[in-house]
Amino acid sequence: MDCLFCKIVEGSIPAKVLMETDNVLVFHDIQPAAPVHVLIIPKKHIASMNDVTAEDLGVIGEMHQAAQQAARKLGVDQSGYRLINNCGPDSGQAVHHLHYHLLGGAKLGALTGISGSHA
């Protein structure tokens, strides 16, 4: 398999790892888009959110727990952070291995067409 993130999981490509469990890996993005920018991935190859099955729901929960723990470790749990999953070509998904971007450490700009109000 020619998956960048699978190679990071197996250790053939180095990464600055923040934390790791049996099923999840959290590491710093090499091209950060914010002062705090880590990636949260399942160790199992899942191409995108569209490929998640009922059997994968446990690891999705573990990824969310890892996001909470990473935010605490990085000191952005109280100030705020953004958790993003890109799915498919129009979203900008560049690596076809399910992952979340955790961004924080600064006031983040508004996302186009998305607001906190649902009036």
Alpha plus pi helix count: 2
Q: Beta-sheet strand percentage?
A: 15-25%
Sketch the topology as an H/E string, one letter per element.
Answer: HEEEHEE
Multimerization state: single chain
Going by helix content, strand content and strand pairing, the class is alpha+beta
Number of strands: 5
User: In which range does the helix fraction lie?
Assistant: 10-25%
User: CATH homologous superfamily - what is it?
Assistant: HIT-like
The major pleated sheet works out as:
5 strands, antiparallel
How much is the average pLDDT?
93
Q: Based on CA inertia axes, which overall geometry fits?
A: globular
Indicate the CATH class.
Alpha Beta
Might you state the CATH topology name?
HIT family, subunit A
**What is the number of independent domains?**
1
Unreliable stretches (pLDDT < 50, length at least 5) are 114-119
Cα end-to-end separation: 46 Å
Q: Strands across the major sheet, in which order?
A: 1-2-3-5-4
The CATH architecture category equals 2-Layer Sandwich
**Rg from alpha-carbon coordinates:** 14 Å
InterPro entries: Histidine_triad_HIT, HIT-like, HIT-like_sf
Domain HIT: 4-113
Motif (Histidine triad motif): 97-101
Pfam families: DcpS_C
Describe this structure in words.
It comes from Paenibacillus lacisoli. The structure is a single chain. The chain has one domain: HIT-like (HIT family, subunit A), CATH 3.30.428. Helix content is 20%, strand content 21%. The chain contains two helices and five strands, in the order H-E-E-E-H-E-E. It has helices at 4-10, 57-73, and strands at residues 17-20, 24-28, 36-42, 81-84, 100-104. A five-stranded antiparallel beta sheet has the order 1-2-3-5-4, with helices on one face. Strand 1 and strand 2 form a beta hairpin. It is globular.
